[in-house]
Amino acid sequence: MLIPAWRARGRCAKEPQAGRLRPVFGAAVTGLPYPALMTTTGREVVHTVVDGVTVEVRRSPKRRRTVSAYRQEGRLVVLVPARMSRAEEGEWVRTMVARVAASEQRRQRTDGDLAQRALALSREYLDGRAVPSSVRWVSNQRSRWGSCTPAEGSIRLSDKLRGMPSWVVDYVLLHELAHLLQPGHGPEFWALLRGYSRLERARGYLQGVSATAGLDLSDE
Ligand SMILES: [Zn+2]
Questions:
Q1: Which of 41, 76, 133, 188 could cross-link 153 (Cys pair, CB 3.0–4.6 Å)?
Q2: Are residues 122 and 71 in the same domain?
């Protein structure tokens, strides 16, 4: 569902004017860690949520026809020409969210990809100390996002994670990798994950999904 953040502007319906600073309107879009709407000098930045993805729309006066999107710190930045209409912008945001999700899903598709990702994460955050013997997607996990058997070195990820942002999948993978080194959820365990900057955001994302879907899924 697209939440048209620009509706939050209410009576402030004019296009932003160059060189003028506008106050922030946007109380109507709640639950976001940022302002729902922000207008800065001549450039407008809109934050919204589309299909569970936090989107930042940037209108660029330099951009003529092309629309592009990239991931940045857990959100999807969509760049659109400043002259684009609101309706077109809404369509494009939806399209780009779907495209990026599809491409991320393709990238996360195989168990082999997951195993490679696990090794990369282990190298980056755990000095390569966690070396799983197997990493695979499973569809039979009802109460957990991920699980592992340290004695075997095996890690399983719920396929409910498929299609979620890669930084969320990375967090669950890293969580299970850390369990290969440290059982339980004591301070030593969380210390292993300290380097992962999106830790709290990923945990919040999963809690949100669990609550919204009425699932009793935990990340512990
Ligand atoms: Zn755990």
A1: 133
A2: no
